[in-house]
Amino acid sequence: MVKIVLDVEGIHCGMCETHVNDVVRRVEGVKKVTSSHAKGRTEVIAEDGTSIDAIKSAIAAQGYGVGEVSSMPYEKKGLFSRLKK
């Protein structure tokens, strides 16, 4: 799993967040997406190998600008995650 953080320009309200989340969820491999108009950021949890370009294109097709993108490994944190070592 991978966590992808995108700076998105043009998100001004909760409805904008919903539009971005809806199109990103349709990209193959995406498991979870959250957006914040206050931070101007969208965070995506996806399977390894998910196309970042496909996510960026989906957002851009809705009229929003995509700025800086960062990607990092993601490990789900659960109730017993501290016991794994």
Task: Tell me what you see in this structure.
The protein is an alpha+beta fold. Helices cover 26% and strands 35% of the residues. The protein is built from two helices and four strands. It has helices at residues 14-25, 52-61, and strands at residues 2-9, 30-36, 41-46, 65-73. Strand 2 (30-36) and strand 3 form a beta hairpin. The longest helix has 12 residues, at 14-25. The model has no long low-confidence stretch (mean pLDDT 92).
Task: List key phrases describing it.
four-stranded antiparallel sheet, 85 residues, alpha+beta, 35% strand, single chain, Alpha-Beta Plaits
Helix/sheet category: alpha+beta
Largest sheet: 4 strands, antiparallel
Question: Can you tell me the overall shape?
Answer: globular
- Note the total helix count: 2
The whole-number mean of residue pLDDT values reads 92
Radius of gyration: 13 Å
CATH top-level class: Alpha Beta
- Could you please say which CATH topology applies here? Alpha-Beta Plaits
What portion of the residues fall into strands of 2 or more residues? 35-45%
Name the CATH architecture. 2-Layer Sandwich
Blueprint (SSEs and pairs):
Blueprint: E1 2-9, H1 14-25, E2 30-36, E3 41-46, H2 52-61, E4 65-73
Antiparallel strand pairs: 1-3, 1-4, 2-3
Short overview:
This protein is α+β, with helices and mostly antiparallel strands and 85 residues long. The chain is built from two helices and four strands. The chain is globular and about 45 Å long.
